[in-house]
Amino acid sequence: MSTVRSLTANEKRQLDAYINELDGQIGPTGGTLKTQFLSAEADRLHRELYNTEPDINTPGQLFKGGTPFERAQHFLIQHQLKKPRKPQNSSWVKWLAITMISLFAMGCLTLISLIIFFSPIIDMKNEGQVELFGGAIKLNDANFSIYQGGRQLRIQTENRGQLAVAESTDTLEVEFENGQLKVTPAQGIQEIQWYCQYLVVQSDSNNDLSPNIKVNRNHIAVKFEDAKGMNCDIQVPGHLKVLKVDGENGQLELNNISQEVDVAIENGRVAISPAAGTNYDWDLKVENGIISGATSADPLAAKTPGRVRLEKGQIQISK
User: Per residue in 19-55, pLDDT tens?
Assistant: First the structure.
């Protein structure tokens, strides 16, 4: 006479978990039929476990006839009841998605913070000094060698130029790629003057980095096409009526100006200090960043248009 062994505690626990999951997958429907089915399933699984050694591949024996979801589907279809609920996604999938979204948002905030609070990324000072991330890192060309793509970089400390401006000229347009640009009024002269520093590859240090200038009847375009990293001070005559600046990345400062302003920069910082008595009618827009200091124009006084477009960064208007 054979002896039927008892289930171990681990086997009982896994069997009860299987039946509970099966009950949940069937749901509240079925009534007596459900009770009879669950009892029959428990007896079937008991027999499966009795015929094996204790605690040997218990999950395999329990799932031999199908998962709880599959057995529930069989019961509901057999008795023409409603279809069972699909198994719910594991909670780890939800938390993984939340984590990925949070990391992406943190990356975007970090990038915006770097642009707003640590612009310009590269700022060249006098006597071979370079500041990175708004002065957070300072390098001195006398003590450091800087490399880009295996080629040594150096600072070209001086590039000066000037251009006479006719009285009929009313518009100045300046274009640059990367760097820092400061514009101030010229004192008592009818010409544009510039003094620039560049970060260039050592082998290109003898190249002419003077801006490309085009002069029309009433329009002057100054383009710093070959300068990948620059720090320029530009003085403009006071009779100019319109000042346009188009740049990619960097910092633009317009100090003590009274001209109509039209600025478009992709990433960085734009700081404008209007001349006393200038009544600017501001049209400012930043896709990602902040605008500070701008006030409404006096409706009773003559207005000067001031338009600035910035994708990422900061626009700051000083009173």
Answer: 899 899 888 888 888 899 999 988 888 888 888 888 7
For residue 146, the Cα-to-chain-centroid distance in whole angstroms is 27
C-alpha 138/C-alpha 267 separation (Å) is 22
Cα–Cα distance measured from residue 55 to residue 67, given in angstroms and rounded to the nearest whole number: 19
Distance CA 88, CA 85 (A): 8
The pTM is what?
A: 0.54
First to last CA, the chain: 103
Pairing of strands 129-132, 122-124: antiparallel
